Amino acid sequence: MSAGRRVYVKIPASTANLGPGFDSLGMALNLYAWIEMAIADKTTIRLYGEQMEGIPTDKSNLVYKVAQQVFEAAGVDHPELDIAMYSDIPLTRGLGSSASAIVGALVAANAVIGRPLSDDRLFQMASALEKHPDNVGASLFGGIIAAFWDGTRAEQLRIEPEDRLEVLVAIPQFQLATEKARHVLPTSIAMQDAVFNVGHSSLLVAALSLGRYDMIRHAMRDALHQPYRAPLIPGMSDILEHAVDHGALGVALSGAGPTLLALVDGEQLDAAGKAQLERFLLDTLQGEGIAAETLWLRPCLQGAQVLTGFDPLCTLIENINAHHPHRTVRIMG
Question: Which pTM value belongs to this model?
């Protein structure tokens, strides 16, 4: 294969858990990262955008390391790569930034060598790297993913949400490392809490599958992780309790947080209702001294895509601006 071959991959953000589906439910969102990759004579890693600050540009870079795992699995050797990355997904906010990087690296590296690995193989590799399949499954396949990973193998089924489902996220202006958010979780739980979450998660999957969005307000309650993480995010408990009174179908902590996510029926909630819900989230956080951004998103039905039509003579950001000029951008609330 020619060392000049260059691939471009677009990867959606994701939200995990959706309340009760801890480490098992994920949804892709129309907020994106892009990766450009080619085999080269010398490794070069170029980063674009404020979300890339602090990411290494040597061979310790996550995208580079994951790409090497793909090459090893495929039985080829390409130690030098030319990589460029841009992302609109905020880092360590609970919107799957690390999962998008892992999925993007897997898909790009596989495409560079002619796609010898199946999507399922990439999913297995991604789940093993993340240690849970919800974010990576959503970013890889799109839509809503119900999945498990038992430490050896991951399995997933995809749900395609209806067009009327919309997503409002409130992104606090502080980072919360997943490791810290997991550290506050108990090592054991009561049987009644386990039964509570099994029932609610099952109801949520059924509601999303059948379009019974009226049941989401009952189904998105959680007893396994959100009560323990709430002290890390002042205002979260009030939002979880009262957002449905301001027009949300249901509300949850997005992944490990600190982003909070509300599901909305776009056919039932008009512009004034959406503004009221947005104001409630922002005011609640502001009342605790927390500045936040809000963003209206939609579920992304497409997973990671290998793009065509990009010009190899242009930079990655020039290509993105040319082909995706109306992409979603973050808005300060």
Answer: 0.93
Long-range CB pairs of 175-180 (<8 Å, 24+ gap) are 175/91, 175/92, 175/93, 175/258, 176/92, 176/93, 176/94, 176/232, 176/233, 176/256, 176/257, 176/258, 177/92, 177/256, 178/92, 178/98, 178/255, 178/256, 180/232
Compute the CA torsion angle 328, 320, 117, 91 (nearest 10 deg): -50
CB proximity list for 139: less than 8 A, separation 6 or greater:
11, 12, 13, 14, 28, 96, 99, 100, 103, 104, 303, 304
Give pLDDT tens digits for 284-306.
Answer: 999 999 999 999 999 999 999 99
Output the CATH code of domain 6-160+300-332.
Answer: 3.30.230.10
Q: Same CATH fold, 165-297 and 6-160+300-332?
A: no
* Fold of the CATH domain 165-297: Alpha-Beta Plaits (3.30.70)
How do the domains of the chain map onto residue ranges? 6-160+300-332, 165-297
